[in-house]
Design brief:
Elements: H1 2-25, H2 36-41, H3 51-60, E1 68-72, H4 74-81, H5 88-105, E2 112-120, E3 134-141, H6 145-155, E4 161-166, E5 169-175, H7 177-183, E6 194-201, E7 204-208, H8 210-220, H9 228-234, E8 242-246, H10 248-255, E9 277-283, E10 287-295, H11 299-319, H12 323-331, E11 333-337, E12 340-348, H13 349-360
Antiparallel strand pairs: 1-2, 1-8, 2-3, 3-7, 4-5, 5-6, 6-7, 8-9, 9-10, 10-12, 11-12
Helix pairs in contact: 1-10, 1-11, 11-12
Length: 389
Amino acid sequence: MRKTLNPLVLILLLVTATAVNVAAQCTLSGPATVDNHLVAASGGNLLPNSARAQAIISSLGNLPEADTLIYINPQRILNEAVPKFMSAKDVEGMRKSFEDMKTMAGVDPGKLDYMVIAVRFKKPTADLKFQPPEFMVVSSGDFSADSLIAMARSVASKWTIRDEMYGDKTMGLVTIEPLAKESEKNPFLKSFTEMGIVSLNANTIATGSPAYLRSAIDAGAGKDRISPENLNLLVRDPNALISFAGRPWHSFAQSFGMLGTETTPRTPRCESKIGDMYAALTMDATNFMIRGVSNADNPDTARILANLYSTLLNYAATSIKEPSAQKVLNALAITAEGDEVLVRADFPQQMVMDLVRQQMKPKQAAADVTKPETPAKPVTKRRRSKRKQ
């Protein structure tokens, strides 16, 4: 793994430097919207048409705005993907453990509809202090949210949990004492010293930053909800195992004052969607597939960036001698299409399973090769001769 780190980090740093440089010249603003080229890159299938996908979008539509979203599909991961890497006996054991969890805790992980990690970035304070982002994890499925929270309270009895009424919801708040003490020396940690949990509806539970949970309660009542475009972008492939959607450079602009502070908004100089991205891991009957799209603002920049990334990718593939890493790098295809840089890769399921099994094998202990000891030369005592007097 260490061999693959440097080239991949280099690629990441170059992407970051390029986008931040553009963001510094042209501030991003406004809510996220769907780019036409992004739609084209996805084959025009931006709005998932399955009943389950529509139900998920409807449920997530009650959440507050987010700058970064990660969508996890537990049902496909646990019921379709994971069993491919396990023996029949292990699969049976896993499902039995799920049944036990359902009996004990009232929740079956294999029947969760979704888990979503949401992150939002904040503007600086009036005195120009950077504010760490807020995060929230939302889970929904075949379980009772109130019962699950009640059980969590009993398990975490050693923590001091205090209740706070907000709207018609009761939030459970807890202070993380180790972080609270550390935040006295490092103010950056202050935003992470308190965590909350709340039931958003009968089968949806949210944990995370208390301020973000309050916004989620407000959004459930119809105030400042997340834009449908962001959700459609996130769940546009209803079969994805995991998908990601974000606006990293907008988040950078917001966090570092390009859009003003909490008390003094700043009018943006221009609008750009550079850096807005979507990525997903999905699978079909024979392959695991990676799909990614990143906005490059214009066709020329898209071609330049695609050529740059391809060059760095080729360099990494030729520099790394590890066969498994070469297979992964050689499968990646980076192209430019309109204003977008597209990343595609198809990995045969058998190849992935072989790689995983190979990594999971216990390493054979290297035989201790000891150098034969050189026999010590016998010590010969010198005879002293007596001097004649």
